[in-house]
TrEMBL record:
Pathway: Cell wall biogenesis; peptidoglycan biosynthesis. Keywords: Carboxypeptidase, Cell membrane, Cell shape, Cell wall biogenesis/degradation, Glycosyltransferase, Hydrolase, Membrane, Multifunctional enzyme, Peptidoglycan synthesis, Protease, Transferase, Transmembrane, Transmembrane helix. This is Penicillin-binding protein 1A. It comes from Arenibacter palladensis. It is found in: Cell membrane.
């Protein structure tokens, strides 16, 4: 046939076309057969999984956080508004419903403009199905030849997708996988991030904004380039008019609307309960590891798990408000109390230690810099954001300035739970997760001070010591303890006074607590603590009565719960159940409650009455006088030596709360006991929170709950004068200004 063509140019042209066509056909065939990399089979396409963010929900069904590599929350076709689908088709693939994965008309148009007319703005000609193929199987290599290979692969995959899925399915597969920038994948996550609403709630102009981003997720990001985004949004709406999805009047009217975002970034450091979410994340990582050991493959970042927690989101928000309200005022008082003599200003040894223990110092030391070079680097000023309770602000500051700025911040840990089950209701691990990652509930061990005394008194009651037993408040120097002489915090003359156990506990009398410990026996007290769920190794010393043991908040909370749970301690837990992306249950978690009682019912009732006295007339009385709270409450304050740790344990019929306040650096304490005592530094967080709960009727089942009446036997055992004064002859022969000296009876055997 070619012999009959006499024109040599025509013959060469035809031969060239045949060669090019044949080569292209062979190339496509080789791609189809997998010579340039395996193509997904129809089976794989019908069973593919894309990475899904795992979601964390509160007990009241509020989404409080996500764990993800790529922020993605797949949804169904019925959950997407019609205007979003129309906007997508209008701007991205106007013949979407007419082709079978490849829009040949558009493809030839692009090829003609690009190859023959050298028009670089001709576009890509890719259909939504082809874009989906690219999303599902990202291109791995660059270069013109590899780009052509990728295009052919995507066309083949697109055709297979079209043969297997309906148009609605393809749209949703695309919308659930496409990137919207800001590490966000999928329309639901994008809608929540940019407009703080579910995709089903998007208005037309909002849908057009999100769809407009798909051409260039950074260049048309409405947060970064609002003007570009607005123009692109309006172009999308014009395309909707061109494709008969909008009238010209509707399009013109909508174009006049301003671009309004309600940006909500799922920044791990921001949002509700960040410390709680971090603890859940750690527990979930351990859970996933255990599942892998069983042969089950779950990844908290990609498996789309739903994690249903015990947290009450409303209670948590109110707790965070109360904490911020109190800690801001306390921080101001704390800094004023020190003034210009503050340790972070004057204590050069402390400052040197803080600098040398810091990450930057150690990094530069490891890099081989000498002391002068390190200090020069750490003193270099630059613009940085420094957090303050009043306001965060940009300042010219050095690394050392930053270290000393954050050194002075008071911190807190506050945990509340259901005392019957251990289900955590609120979790405040610190004042600000972004700047203070250390969680004071699950990680920090601090001396518990007088918050340990109830355990001492419980052990005493269990040994048979009557609550009406009187103990002298006189200070004693214990010679076999190197002259150790515990004293009381008040300036009150107590040499002639003898306190009942109830009065001594409610007034937190140190001298009596040590004598109760001595009479009970240290081993018996330690044994009692262990029965109540304390796993920390306790010091077998007389100072144990004053709370020199360092215990975690969650551990102490589990022990205190026994006073509200018939003597049975609990283990605080955070997760109710875990489900897959379809909400089918994978695992549920049951409360961990001690099998045996740690003490008798009578002992529990007596202890509760004694701790009620602490709130009604003792060291925690300001909860009544200052905050006007009338709820049924029992409690115990705690303050450690040198005012470094302040505690308050609050017990209500249906809620237990443990709060600690102090500084992260153990070398700094409050300047005075009046400021740093538990009643002033820790109690107000609970009191302010309870005020907020009282004001909300939805919490009436908790706030209006009443303690059961104690038995007549218990009331009879407590029926004694709180204080007895030494008799005349005893006073006559006692020198109140002279300490009594004796050996402390260690009681090395349990009874």
């Amino acid at each position: 046939m070619l012999k009959n063509i006499k024109n040599p140019f025509l013959r060469i042209g035809i031969i060239s076309l045949v060669v090019i066509g044949g080569t292209a056909l062979l190339l496509v065939l080789s791609i189809y057969l997998g010579a340039w990399g395996k193509l997904p089979s129809k089976q794989e396409l019908s069973d593919f999984k894309y990475q899904r963010a795992s979601e964390v929900y509160s007990a009241d069904s509020v989404l409080i956080g996500k764990y993800f590599l790529f922020d993605r929350q797949p949804i169904q076709y019925e959950e997407v508004p019609k205007n979003l689908i129309e906007a997508l088709v209008a701007i991205e693939d106007e013949r979407f419903y007419d082709h079978s994965g490849i829009d040949y008309k558009s493809l030839f148009r692009v090829a003609f403009k690009t190859i023959l007319m050298q028009d670089q703005s001709a576009g890509g000609g890719s259909t939504i199905s082809q874009q989906l193929a690219k999303n599902l199987y990202p291109r791995e290599k660059s270069g013109k030849f590899n780009l052509a290979l990728s295009k052919f692969k995507e066309m083949i995959i697109a055709s297979r997708l079209e043969a297997m899925y309906s148009k609605e399915d393809i749209l949703m597969l695309y919308l659930n996988t496409v990137s919207f920038g800001d590490n966000t994948f999928g329309i639901e996550s994008a809608s929540l991030k940019f407009f703080n609403k579910s995709a089903r709630e998007l208005e037309l102009q909002e849908s057009a904004t999100l769809v407009g981003m798909l051409k260039a997720t950074y260049g048309y990001n409405p947060r970064v380039f609002p003007k570009n985004s607005l123009n692109r949004r309006n172009l999308v709406m014009q395309s909707m008019y061109s494709n008969d999805f909008l009238s010209q009047k509707e399009a013109d009217s909508l174009k006049l609307l301003p671009l309004q975002l309600n940006y909500r970034d799922y920044d791990y450091s921001e949002g509700i309960a960040p410390y709680f979410r971090e603890e859940v994340r750690k527990q979930m990582l351990n859970w996933a590891k255990e599942q892998r050991e069983k042969g089950l493959d779950y990844n908290i970042y990609t498996s789309g798990l739903k994690i249903y927690t015990t947290l009450d989101s409303k209670m948590q928000m109110l707790a965070e408000e109360a904490m911020g309200q109190h800690m801001k005022a306390l921080q101001n008082s704390f800094e004023k109390s020190y003034g210009k003599r503050a340790p972070w200003i004057k204590d050069q040894n402390l400052i040197k230690k803080v600098i040398q223990n810091s990450g930057p110092y150690k990094k530069w030391k490891k890099a081989g810099l000498n002391e002068k070079e390190i200090m020069d680097s750490m003193n270099l000023k630059k613009e940085m954001l420094l957090r303050d309770w009043n306001q965060d602000e940009m300042r010219s500051a050095s690394t050392i300035d930053s270290l000393l700025h954050y050194l002075k911040f008071l911190n807190t840990g506050s945990l509340s739970l259901d005392p019957k089950t251990g289900a955590v209701k609120t979790w405040l691990g610190g004042i600000n997760f972004k700047h203070f990652k250390y969680d004071h509930i699950s990680q920090s061990k601090r001396q518990v001070g007088s918050a340990f005394k109830p355990i001492v008194y419980t052990a005493a009651l269990e040994k048979g010591i009557s609550p009406c037993t009187y103990f002298s408040a006189q200070e004693v120097a214990y010679e076999n303890m190197e002259g150790w002489s515990p004293s009381n915090s008040a300036n009150k003359d107590e040499a002639y006074l003898n306190y009942s156990m109830e009065e001594a506990l409610s007034k937190s009398v140190n001298t009596v607590a040590v004598k109760v410990l001595e009479k009970t026996g240290i081993p018996n007290v330690i044994d009692q603590a262990q029965k109540m769920g304390i796993e920390t190794t306790l010091p077998a010393l007389p100072s144990l009565a004053l709370g020199t043991a360092e215990i975690k908040i969650n551990e102490l909370a589990g022990a205190y719960a026994s006073y509200l749970n018939h003597g049975k301690s609990v283990t605080p837990f955070l997760i109710h159940r875990i489900t897959n992306e379809k909400d089918s249950i994978i695992e549920t978690f049951k409360p961990v409650v001690a099998e045996k009682r740690a003490f008798s019912e009578e002992t529990g009732q007596i202890m509760l009455e004694m701790m009620k006295a602490t709130v009604n007339s003792g060291t925690a009385a300001r909860i009544r006088s200052t905050y006007g709270i009338k709820n049924d409450i029992a409690g115990k304050t705690g303050t450690t030596q040198n005012n470094k740790d302040a505690w308050f344990a609050a017990l209500t019929p249906k809620l237990l709360n443990i709060t600690w306040v102090g500084l992260d650096n153990h070398e700094i304490g409050f300047s005075s006991t009046s400021l740093g005592q538990g009643a002033n530094a820790a109690l107000p967080i609970f009191a302010l929170w309870l005020q907020k709960l009282n004001a909300d009727k939805s919490f009436d089942h908790i706030t209006k709950a009443k303690f059961p009446n104690p038995s007549s036997a218990v009331m009879s055992n407590l029926d004694c004068d709180p204080v007895k004064r030494d008799g005349f002859f005893k006073r006559l022969f006692k020198n109140p200004k002279k300490k009594k000296t004796k050996d402390f009876k260690t009681g090395n055997t349990k009874t």
